[in-house]
Automatic annotation (TrEMBL):
InterPro entries: NIR_SIR_4Fe-4S, NiRdtase/SiRdtase_haem-b_fer, Nit/Sulf_reduc_fer-like_dom_sf, NO2/SO3_Rdtase_4Fe4S_dom, NO2/SO3_Rdtase_4Fe4S_sf. Keywords: 4Fe-4S, Heme, Iron, Iron-sulfur, Metal-binding, Oxidoreductase. This is Sulfite reductase (NADPH) hemoprotein beta-component. Residues 120-273, 407-546 form the Nitrite/sulphite reductase 4Fe-4S domain. Residues 53-111, 336-397 form the Nitrite/Sulfite reductase ferredoxin-like domain. One of its GO terms (molecular function) is oxidoreductase activity.
Length: 554
């Protein structure tokens, strides 16, 4: 079990970096071909992208310290182009790494207790959770100790290093899911039943070329059985998952082809057999981890200055109303710092911005920083008395955009500007759509509206789960964009349905503009979100807006 917070863990990470240094040397002198080198680099989170190598770094369950994010900033400045890109799996990617420099980057990560192990390959990827964990008002229990337990258990687990395909786990601790558990190979939802803590367990979710919403395999799993049960799922999948076709190798396909009931029986059999070898060591470790994730010492907060500032400034009030989430402790709030300012690349964060976030977290937020799967940053524990000063500092740095969850808070993959797998551009579509909305001054009027964009069918932008999803494809050498409607990863998990024929690049934003106009016309009140209007009316009025020529001939 890897604990990167102690000397032994860091020594191991440095050993891994040295191993990779030797492998890089053999690749550079020609001793290893690219095909031979590929599995070695993937084990260290290194991809060959369109223009350069990319290093993907795990930020376990999205929690990062000021010292660690400063370490990322230093890496961005020294070995990249002064920025990093936060992803939908709470990772960070450095897109311009030189292969010869990556071992030094791994060494630098080890110095701050971070690594790139299992951020690629057919193994258990970074375990993700709610960016508001430990702070949310509706939380049953902080899920991060459980996520860390899963990370400890899965890292370098000998049995599960060569699964049929990559494997993703998410865990949610709130009454409202904020971790998109239904779109993961395993989704875990903390709950209490008859006073006992446990999990609702989902399996078989995932996006990509065959998007599926997961299914509940266990309504209630006692908390003490988590590791042997998860191990049972992975063992059953490892034995029965498809290895003859990588497009059919994910757990979701195994569930679909073999049936949930059949797989449940195999999981239960593996679980019963494996539970016997879990003799309480995991429970002892969990107790230590809970201490590590103890809440900061909260204080009584005088909110007088906060309320005065809110009344005095419309801009501050707009930011408060949009980017704050309710905290479980009176006098505190959780703050979302969106990386979606006008002209910004969704998820990109400069080294200077990282250092500022570190400083502000130490000064105003108990030193706690989270990376959210929507490519934003969260400061989970901010006294309301500190909010005016925090806002002023963020605004000066261009980080106080009041659009969390709005139509301009777009999730986007890097697309064809970087990725070798992409078939179309993503980032320019996101930027142009946000510019269009702002030019019409519609962001606040539209309100909550989830737009997600992917540059290929691998769906790294999670377009299937957007209220509106945009998928870029290649059609005979020309970019073509499909639009999906009605996706949802949270309240009512659903895969968006394709609206119709795709659009050329220059017609995508005008098409979304017509969709927006149709929504504003048919909504019952400003409080009715687009997704609610779609569920009430069905897709017909929105398809008519997207395809007016077809509607006129109907």
């Amino acid at each position: 079990m890897l604990d990167a917070t102690n000397d032994d863990g860091r020594a191991y990470l440095q050993h891994r970096a040295q191993q990779f240094r030797a492998q890089v040397a053999r690749r550079l002198d020609g001793s290893l071909t690219e095909e031979e080198f590929r599995p070695l680099r993937l084990m260290n989170g290194v991809y060959l992208q369109l223009h350069a190598y990319m290093l993907r770094v795990a930020i376990p369950y999205g929690t990062i310290s000021p010292n660690q994010i400063r370490g990322l900033a230093d890496i961005a400045d020294r070995w990249d182009r002064g920025y990093g890109h936060f992803t939908t799996r709470q990772n960070i990617q450095f897109n311009w790494a030189k292969l010869v420099d990556i071992p030094d980057m791994l060494d630098a990560l080890a110095d701050v207790g971070l690594h790139a192990i299992q951020t690629s390959g057919n193994t258990v990827r970074n375990v993700t959770t709610d960016a508001f964990a430990g702070a949310a008002a509706d939380e049953i229990e902080d899920p991060r100790p459980w996520a860390e337990l899963l990370r400890f258990w899965s890292t370098d687990h000998a049995e599960f290093q060569f699964l049929p395909r990559k494997f993703k786990i998410a865990i949610s601790g709130g009454k409202r899911d904020r971790a998109v558990i239904a779109a993961h190979d395993i989704g875990l939802r903390l709950r209490r039943q008859d006073g006992r803590l446990g999990f609702q367990v989902w399996i078989g979710g995932g996006l990509g070329r065959t998007p599926m919403i997961g299914k509940v395999v266990r309504e209630f799993l006692p908390a003490e059985d988590l590791l042997p049960y998860v191990e049972g799922i992975l063992a059953a999948y490892n034995l029965s998952g498809r290895r003859d076709n990588k497009y059919k190798a994910r757990l979701k396909i195994t569930v679909a082809e073999r049936g949930l009931d059949v797989l449940r029986e195999e999981i239960e059999e593996e679980f019963q057999r494996r539970r016997a070898v879990f003799r309480g060591h995991d429970e002892e470790l969990l107790a230590r981890l809970r201490d590590r994730f103890a809440a900061p010492v909260f204080r009584e907060v005088d909110e007088t200055g906060f309320h005065a500032a809110r009344a005095a400034s419309g801009a501050f009030r707009s930011w408060i109303d949009t980017n704050l989430s309710e905290h479980r402790v009176p006098g505190y709030a959780s703050v979302t710092v969106t990386l979606k300012a006008p002209g910004a690349v969704p998820g990109d964060c400069t080294a200077a911005q990282m250092r500022l976030i570190a400083e502000l977290a130490e000064r105003h937020a108990h030193g706690d920083i989270r990376i959210a799967h929507d490519q934003n940053i969260v400061l989970p524990h901010v006294p309301k008395s500190e909010l005016p000063a925090l806002y002023a500092a963020l605004r000066e740095a261009g980080l106080a955009t009041a659009n969390a969850g709005h139509i301009t808070d777009i999730i986007s993959c890097p697309g064809m500007d970087f990725c070798t797998l992409a078939t179309a551009r993503s980032v320019p579509i996101a930027q142009e759509l946000a510019d269009y909305v702002r030019a019409r001054d519609l962001d606040d009027e539209i309100g909550k509206f989830d737009v997600r964009i992917s540059g290929c069918i691998n769906a790294c932008g999670h377009h299937h789960l957007g209220h509106v999803g945009i998928l870029g494809l290649d059609r005979a050498g020309v970019e073509n964009y499909q639009i999906t409607l009605g996706g949802d990863g949270y309240e009512m998990p659903a895969i968006g349905e394709r609206a119709g024929a795709g659009f050329p690049y220059d017609q995508v934003v005008p098409a979304i503009g017509r969709l927006i106009d149709a929504y504003l016309e048919v909504r019952e009140s400003p409080e009715e979100r687009f997704i609610d209007a779609l569920r009430r009316l069905g897709p017909a009025p929105f398809k008519a807006a997207l395809y007016p020529a077809e509607a006129s001939h109907a």
